Protein 1
Amino acid sequence: MLSTTPRTTLGRKKHRAVTDRSALHAVLDEGLICHLGIVRDGAPLVLPTGYGRDGDTLYLHGSTGASSLRTASRDLDVCVTVTLLDGIVYSRSVNNHSMNYRSAVIFGKAKPVVDPEAKMHGLKVLTDHLAPGSWEHAREVNAKEFAAVSVLSLDLAEASVKVRAEGPDDEPEDLDADAAWAGVLPVRTVFGTPEPSTDLSPGWQVPAHVTGRE
Amino acid sequence: MLSTTPRTTLGRKKHRAVTDRSALHAVLDEGLICHLGIVRDGAPLVLPTGYGRDGDTLYLHGSTGASSLRTASRDLDVCVTVTLLDGIVYSRSVNNHSMNYRSAVIFGKAKPVVDPEAKMHGLKVLTDHLAPGSWEHAREVNAKEFAAVSVLSLDLAEASVKVRAEGPDDEPEDLDADAAWAGVLPVRTVFGTPEPSTDLSPGWQVPAHVTGRE
């Protein structure tokens, strides 16, 4: 079960809350980027960044463009949000238009991963999420690169998942009036045809871990 | 030109910064949801929400699940981020793997839109973004709905845009080694086939503003 701290208990539309941990894992595993929120000089800052999950640990690249992250000498309060948009909900009234989505919101303290073995594991988890198969296919991280990169970890202890996955929710009078179309326009994220690098030497075929990605 | 306050000046990968206002508008117009960051009890909170743009004003639904937004008696410091993921960049080394993306980060104070005419305009802008054509097709907002909804506005005065739109950036030694495939796997957001509501009366065809959406 997911935690029920005050800030993970939904204040409205409680019926959209999903409280099993497998739902959290599923949203995180399907998403490609997260939005990482921190407080900088008292103001919010939200940056997109890659991530990866292993069990109930989320790994984040420490070099996300926020100097606050890179220079954090102590653990940093973060909110990490992953949103999967599944559809646009067209209702019979403008007011009931909505979106179908699955979102995960995680609160916690992001900690720099210092131990070399744990850090290398974090890099593998990040790579496996961004580009499954690349850890085995591409050139491994060398000592210089390893020293330059930073990895943060975040426990998935305090998290909430919210899901809307249904058709329009119209008012009885709008159903009676029957004056507008209602339904869902699905939204999906898809991969296109791989584009080999212009400097790739002849003879390379696109490897299976790229062509087979879904 | 976009502003160059300290917090919109990129601390790293400066070459990814795009400084013309049309690039900001293009990212905002193509995105479907934003991630809205606020500070609540000193900690960051990031929530997905719909938005719409008119000129250099961004409109947000005030009822996004964050009670902090609904009860804000004064202007609220926010960071709004919209990210379009365009591709996974497979490099010859694990370390140079990356993503192609376009992202916009906006800082400012979200203000409740109180004037009825301005608020109705904000609702139209939000609807036009979420579901173009629905403002004309669906039943208009009635007085009760209008009173219950809240709209926030945010000036696009302080914003930055970051773009990566290129192939792998590999090390010379990895190019020489020629030991891994390199290229980009495009990522796109697409609409599927419209799914009429199960309670839709027979005879309705999917209207053009839904079928024609791209």
Protein 2
Amino acid sequence: MQAVARTLLRSVQRTALIPRVPSLVARSPVVQSGVLRCNPSIAPRIAPIARAFSSAPVPPQSDEKRGYVVLSMLGKDKVGIVRDFSHYLTSLGANVEESRMARLGGEFAVIVLVSLRGMEASEGLAKFKTGLESAFPDFQIHARLTEERDADADVSAAESSSESAEPELLPFEIQVDGPDSPGIVAAVTKVLASRNITLSNVETQTTSAAFSGYPLFRMDVECRIPPSLVSEVERDLESVEEKFGVAISVFELEEDVLDDDVDGEEKR
Amino acid sequence: MQAVARTLLRSVQRTALIPRVPSLVARSPVVQSGVLRCNPSIAPRIAPIARAFSSAPVPPQSDEKRGYVVLSMLGKDKVGIVRDFSHYLTSLGANVEESRMARLGGEFAVIVLVSLRGMEASEGLAKFKTGLESAFPDFQIHARLTEERDADADVSAAESSSESAEPELLPFEIQVDGPDSPGIVAAVTKVLASRNITLSNVETQTTSAAFSGYPLFRMDVECRIPPSLVSEVERDLESVEEKFGVAISVFELEEDVLDDDVDGEEKR
């Protein structure tokens, strides 16, 4: 009962836009005290948003052609990487549309979707990548042109389902908790891939075995599932629960209001 | 008042372990209804965790030498990438310790920390990477050896602060919301980098201008800050608020109980 109550509480601020992976600690059955303390001396400062927004230096909305590039960067972690990287992009007129960056071991890894105003990305990619490599010589860098950002399909449709045959795809979040076992990521994602369901966002984490006696595993997946497949996906995930001794929660997310409005705008 | 209440509610399930970025929609002042609906017909199924854990195939705890490798993979999105990738790693005896994976534009990007039991990573890295490249020929792949996973320092210490001079670093989360402007990522991270504060986790996102009239920006940063620098960091972030017309919230996170226990174990 407690677990359910906690889940529903959390659900209040969830939507499909960004996955939020509540911590292993908070959801672990063995740890009850891993909660945030809001230090009163540094209580969150909520700026007067209405004022701030109205006086903000709003960038001009132009019809300038944008190219889209996905970058990955991987190198030794050090102070100032994100500052230097974002400063460099800004100096080129590139905009960071979406990113995930993490310290992993002693390295710092970045994946980012960048838009470049006023240039055809197909012409500029090689030059862009060369410039990055000179600016960040210690980093391994990949860059790929990609299709125009699809704000509407933050989660992509299954490839095999044509729009007319399966017009509706419901956004879902799948959370996995339990002991870490070889093959658990493959087992969960196999349930989805075997039904041509693509994933928009995945996070996994493990913790040392020192605390609980065995390594704990945590996974959070966002995807879109055709309504007709939801029950069989759930059934197969129950088999994964049994086999690996993990707890799997499946949430249907509210269709994103932002997406709907973007849709309306784009159809004008 | 509403904004504060929502923030504090969310804080209840926060800890420092994994950043959770509540959605742009939920925190946007112009959208009030972007909440999750938990479909009753597919209510979250909470497995009987105690039973599941006790009967789980707990992997043997061995003192086998592990090597740690950070991988990045970038390629065209298609069904089954995560399944195939994780299956391949499992078949090699590699374990996914931590990962971020996202569809960005039409691509799928992965950054992951992998441990390889029973092999010296220094010997196996080239072979490992070659194997991956044959298995995933359409992907651009980078692989780097990294230091042993530092479960204790999920957020890394500032490089310049010696342990004796500044033994305590407090975990903080910084959230930025507002209109997207060129240079906002650089401005926020500059405040931290100029004080030798490294970042453990960063997520950024923007949304189309169609809904609100201008593009919205969202950023979530996790880092550790020396207590003596907290007030000046806050002061400088206030300047960023003013300059860019964004709202920045600074949370001190509870020191992770899991980390403490891992500490204790490792010191034995």
